[in-house]
Write a structure and sequence with these properties.
alpha/beta, globular
């Protein structure tokens, strides 16, 4: 049975990915600060603050070798120049980037050919007013993916980034982002988490073995 570590598995995009993989027959190890939101015999959940290096280190070191890693955990915070909070910037970096590095550093060396890593990025990495710190953290994931893909391509392990536009999750109602309301994509609606999960499931499949080092947008036309 294939196994995957999925971060942010208790809500939003991470929950949709966990649910999709469970439905496809995977065993899922979910990592999230919140309690598990899915009950399933093939789901093992661990509560951990991935933004806290001291808290995440023993959890990550205890992970068994796995076939796939999907780093979907994240938060959005925004502010304009002149009002940037540097502690917030550090927190965004720890959750999105440092946690990705710690997880991949632990898991990738033990993956067999066919191993998969997917990082959940964002269209904000292309530049959005008021989201510079968030966008910078998400943009860093693209650089990590390209570098790691070059390191592991001959081992049959792929690494890609999925970058959604505004997605219908609880994050959009977070009062912390009220000053920067999300834009609705040109298709006239927000992206559904299940649509992102479907792409992730494909990238984890054997059919996607030739796709690596790529950033794939699910933007509803926002990038046109």
């Amino acid at each position: 049975m294939r196994s995957a570590v999925v971060t942010g598995s208790s809500s939003g995009i991470g929950k949709a990915i966990a649910a999709r993989l469970l439905g496809d027959g995977w065993h899922v190890v979910g990592l999230d600060l919140a309690p598990p939101a899915i009950e399933h015999a093939r789901l093992t959940s661990t509560r951990v603050d991935l933004g806290d290096p001291a808290a995440r280190c023993p959890v990550i070191e205890s992970l068994e070798p796995t076939d796939a890693l999907v780093h979907a955990a994240g938060i959005m915070r925004g502010a304009m120049l002149g009002a940037l909070d540097h502690a917030t910037g550090d927190m965004l970096w720890r959750i999105h980037v440092d946690a990705a590095m710690a997880l991949a550093d632990q898991l990738a060396p033990h993956m067999r050919p066919g191993g998969r890593i997917v990082l959940i990025g964002s269209r904000a990495a292309k530049g959005v007013v008021g989201k510079s710190q968030y966008g910078a953290a998400k943009a860093a994931l693209g650089a990590l993916a390209k570098s790691w893909a070059k390191e592991l391509v001959t081992k049959g392990i792929t690494i890609n980034v999925v970058a959604p536009a505004a997605t219908e999750t609880g994050m959009l109602s977070d009062p912390q982002r009220a000053i920067i309301p999300p834009e609705t994509p040109p298709i006239g609606r927000r992206i559904r988490p299940e649509e992102i999960a479907a792409l992730v499931a494909f990238l984890l499949s054997d059919d996607a073995a030739a796709i690596t080092g790529q950033e794939i947008s699910i933007c509803g036309g926002a990038s046109l």
